[in-house]
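Give me the fold.
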Amino acid sequence: MKTQVARLALLVLLALTLADRLTTAQVATGTPAFGSYGGGPFDTVNLGNLNVHFAIPILHKAGRGIPFTYDLKYDSSVWKPVTASGTTQWYPAPNWGWQNGVLFGYVTYSVGTSDCQYYVSYTGQWYTAYTQYFYTDWAFVDQSGSTHPLTGATQSWSGHTQPGTNCATVPPDIPSATGAATDGSGYTLAISNYTTGTVTSASGRQVTNTSGQTTVADANGNQITSNASGQYFDTLSSTVPVLMT
């Protein structure tokens, strides 16, 4: 009896330990590099976090330099832990479930703001002179849905300076920057016009995101593009879409 109680206590302790690790771990989707995988031939199982990834071919078409491939992809991991005000809760993970229209990946970033305020004594109120915008947390989501964090950041501001206050100094304007992946994948980042990100792979293939449009280009200038209207153009035509979603 004592042995059974001891075993039960050990199992409970082990379960609590694993639960704590699960609630503090970020579940990676796609097929990240240097992982251990099983499953197949249809699905790929990440043996480290048990995410199941698979793709259903929709359209594969030969092209000039770059073939056109459009697949519907799926990742089974749907939750991630988010901590706010000291409390950690489970929230739907970004880009979970069906991945529609991921040709060769896309670039993401976060936007943060900071207001410079000044005080007017005769009104007894605070006023905002200008707002700074920070574009950080750049990342590249590749064709499989794996996320590659990137260094590099830009910033801008809008509004006016207020002479004689702490808002009199014009904030630095940084419209462009460069960076690189921090996970050893070999991707590099070039940012222009604050939010236009171009990611280049080790083989020279470039992916650019700007104003709802994605452009994929090889070293010879062949391009595949998509726009915000759900139209896709391959390397053989830039006017007639090869696919519409």
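The chain has one helix and 19 strands.
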